[in-house]
Every structure is written in C-alpha cells, then in structure tokens.
Write a structure and sequence with these properties.
Layout lengths: L2 H11 L4 H8 L3 H9 L6 H11 L3 H6 L34
Helix pairs in contact: 1-3, 2-4
Length: 97
C-alpha cells in the first residue's frame, strides 16, 4: 500500500479530514493532498508529524504495514483467566556430592 492510500485509510479510521489532520500536524493541507495524489515528494519531518497525529510509525504510514525490523513498542495484554489464583514458586537446588 502506498503513502496516499494509507494516509486516506488512517484519516478515515480516525474520522479526520485532511484539513483537521493538517491543523493537528502543522503540515499544510495542500501537502497532504499532494501526498494522497502522489504529486509531491515527502519531507521526513512532515511525515513524522503526521504519523504522530495518526498514532502510527513512519514506516506504517509510508508502507501500510508494520516495520519488520522494529520490535513492538506496545504490548497488548489480554486476560487469560479471571478469578482466584494460587501460585507456588519452587527453588531448584542441586545436591552437593
């Protein structure tokens, strides 16, 4: 997926217009429009500002997929069990001869 398509998709998911995204990121609306249409090269500083507002990495914004070389910065914890739990810890010791 290219930058323009990813930008459109993420803005729609977050219910942001290009005008609102421009206001929040400080990147001109015309620049965002040019990215969407593929008519302008990308300034890395502007790209980072937009990615921050959209709460994604620059790599994700650019390519539409997670960076395969970056470890996840956020871990999602999912509850496996709810209720009372008893945990026993054992220390393993070796017998001396």
């Amino acid at each position: 997926m290219k930058l323009g398509a990813t930008l459109n998709l993420l803005a729609k998911k977050r219910k942001l217009t290009l005008s609102e995204l421009a206001r929040r990121s400080g990147v001109p609306k015309q620049t965002l429009h040019n990215w969407v249409t593929g008519r302008k090269s990308v300034n890395p500083d502007q790209l980072k500002k937009v990615a921050t507002v959209l709460e994604v990495s620059v790599h994700y914004l650019t390519y539409g997929e997670p960076d395969p070389y970056e470890s996840p910065s956020e871990l999602i914890l999912k509850e496996l069990f709810s209720g009372d739990v008893r945990i026993t810890l054992h220390r393993i010791e070796r017998h001396k001869k």
